[in-house]
Amino acid sequence: MKHCCKLGLVVLVLLSSCGRKSAPINRLNVVLVTIDTLRADRLGCYGYSQIETPNLDRLARKGVLFENAVAQAPLTTPSHASMMTGVYPTVHKVRDTGGFVLSPSRPTLASIFERQGWDTAAFVGSSVLKRRFGFAQGFGVYDDEMPKDEASQANRERRAGEVVDRAIRWLGSQSGKPFFLWVHVYDPHIPYDPPSPFREKYAGRPYDGEVAYTDQQLGRLFETVEKKSPPENTLIVVLSDHGESFSEHGEYAHGVFLYDTTLRIAFLMAGRGVPAGLRVKQQARTIDLLPTLLALAGGSAPQGVQGVSLAPAFTGKDVPTTWSYAETLFPKINMGWAELRGIRTNRWKYVRAPKPELYDLSHDPAEAANVIASHPAEAQELEAKLKAVIRSSGVGDSEKVETAPVDRRTLGELKSLGYLSGSSPGEYELTGKGADPKDRTEILKLLHFGVYADTGVPLPSRIGMLRRAIAKDPANPALYSSLGDLYREAGLSGEETTLYQEAIRDGIRVPQLYSRLGALCLQQRNRQDAIAYFEAAARLNPLDYESLQNLAVAYRETGRVEDAERVLLSIVKSGEPFAPAYNELGMVAFQKRDMAAAQDYFGKAARLDPKFQVNLGRLYKMMGDTARARACFEAFLASHGTGEEYRVMVPQVKEELARLQ
User: Fold this and answer.
1) Strand runs (DSSP E) across 254-313, as ranges?
2) Is pLDDT above 60 for 15?
3) Once rounded to an integer, what is the mean pLDDT over residues 451-459?
């Protein structure tokens, strides 16, 4: 369903002098821009006449356009990992969004350039690529600061304009040393909400409006790069991380299937060493980005890279890109269905599924007719190649993958971006067995229209949709938290409680369900049950700091102060800057009559989140320090926080402040 889609745009600036280190590459200023969720067929240079993308179209005229470029996965983090490392997901091991981290031992474009003495910086547009997922390695600057979304209270994304502004400021600080700059913009990702005037110009086509806005902002970046480095010393590369489905094949957004709606990407390149006005028909892959850039820089790819340089194609030579491996583990990990793997050539697309598929892309680019029954030899050949790719990664025909725990804040950020949260930390065996995703398209439709409020479906109808989805697919873990969200939105806490209890009884073991039940019990002052649920959530996901903090609250309120302190100190020792944990430690210290410690902990919480200025102010008030108490209350009111809790607290704090005047 939802899932991460992105398009990548790369700008490489090549300078004249050469660094003299072991195995040196030419001194280059490199700007890599990745654009999230960009379909190739939504750009003018790819034949789409209903949009204005003058900057990307101009880039295509200046250089090479790859007509047949594809991603290795229809998800943001796995696809970006393949771009940055030049290897398939089976090798870099980033298999889905959220529960996987790129290993620091894997060479990346940034780490290669950094070792050559380049300045390196990255500016990303979404929390899906935050440093915690491993993409910061090799970057001296990794700017992943996101503004807080008022509705979701999550730090999730920022518009292309802000990302480009920060990148331009960084460019202005460079004074001659070669640099590698990665700029990632997220705007074409769901939900589609272009700013004015693109909202009005593309009324009824908000995705196109997002793409046109992104093109405009990248034009500012390109202009700055041209001023910073002469055009003859600049190489620009543009590619998507994956595409987007608009209900084709029953898919909404991306991540579930391996059709070209989400695998086909835009891929443009212009600059030194690249001929102008060339359109390459040979297949190109995201794993080919790293070796191509290094070849154009006069270097070579590290040992073990599976991609190849596309530069020979510029002079009409064949490049060994005949086979392209693709996978999506999203259905397995998040929905409890079978994973999909495939092999694509210029002509054929083979998808290994419970009901395998074969498409003749030369006659059926829309992949409407499964011809596997009439072409068994081709299917067998592609299946053999698929097995060879998997085995070359050091695994057998049946592979096991393990997802890592993800903290609650990150889960909230990903969910606010549209990523389902049906997964839980654990091991998954990739057998290719289970429900075939193409037999679950009704579930995908119910989930899409049930989850997204911008579809225009009223809340009661959305609740009904997800109830029907659960009745049809009760083993799908993603459905329960999504329906629970709607129950909470509707104020139906009883129904939400029953939903989670029945899910757990039926074998759904997702930590979010336990933590949500614990929170509901805590609200009802049912502390003993809350403790049991929070403890279960912590066993399933030890990084769920919110549940651990709530567990500490329940411990403290039942007299288990030492247990509360133990749990809270475990959060602090993890290094996570989690303000509620410090605030609760202040409550524990206050209960122990240790006012100095309470003041210290409340102060740390307040520095992380102005909301907690209130408890610090109340402590100062009790201690008779009215000046500091007044300053804390005023700082809280000046923070202009959002959310129901803040709105409830504002009149209380105003009243307390008035008494101090």
Assistant:
1) 264-265, 267-271, 278-285
2) no
3) 84
Domain membership of residue 183 (yes or no) is yes
Residue 204, SS3 per DSSP: coil
pLDDT tens digits along 586-598: 999 999 999 999 9
Of the candidates 339, 376, 315, 187, which has an alpha carbon nearest to the alpha carbon of residue 257?
A: 339
Q: Domain for residue 577, yes or no?
A: no
Q: What is the rounded distance in angstroms from the CA atom of residue 150 to the CA atom of residue 192?
A: 17
Average pLDDT over the chain reads: 90
Q: How far apart are CA 343 and CA 350, in angstroms?
A: 5
- The radius of gyration of the chain's CA atoms, rounded to the nearest angstrom, is 26
| Cα distances (Å, whole numbers) of residue 386 to 394, 451, 461, 625 | 14, 35, 43, 71
Task: Record the pTM.
Answer: 0.89
pLDDT of 11 above 50: no
User: What's the confidence (pLDDT) of residue 236?
Assistant: 86
CA distances from 435 to 238, 240, 256, 397, 440 (A): 36, 29, 12, 19, 8
pLDDT (tens digit per residue) in 25-64: 777 888 888 999 999 999 999 999 999 999 999 999 999 9
Any domain includes 273:
yes
Determine the structural domain holding residue 241 and report its residue range.
6-147+156-321
Predicted local confidence at residue 58, as pLDDT: 96
Where is pLDDT greater, at 362 or 638?
A: 362
Give the count of domains, the chain: 1
3-state secondary structure of 657: helix
Q: What is the CATH number of the domain that holds 293?
A: 3.40.720.10
- What distance in Å separates the CA atoms of residue 144 and residue 450, rounded to the nearest whole number? 30
In sequence order, what are the residues at sequence separation of 6 or more whose Cβ sits closer than 8 angstroms to the Cβ of residue 478? 1, 334, 335, 420, 421, 422, 447
Q: Is residue 594 part of a domain?
A: no
According to DSSP, the β-strands at 141-143 and 119-123 are parallel
Report the side by side order of strands in the sheet with 324-328.
324-328, 340-344, 348-352, 357-360
Q: How many CB atoms lie within 10 A of CB 21?
A: 10
Write 317-322 long-range contacts (CB < 8 A, 24+). 318/282, 319/282, 319/288, 321/282, 321/283, 321/284, 321/285, 321/288, 322/283, 322/346
Beta-carbon count within 10 A of 274 CB: 20
User: Which residues neighbour 473 within 8 Å (Cβ) at sequence distance 6 or greater?
Assistant: 435, 440, 443, 479
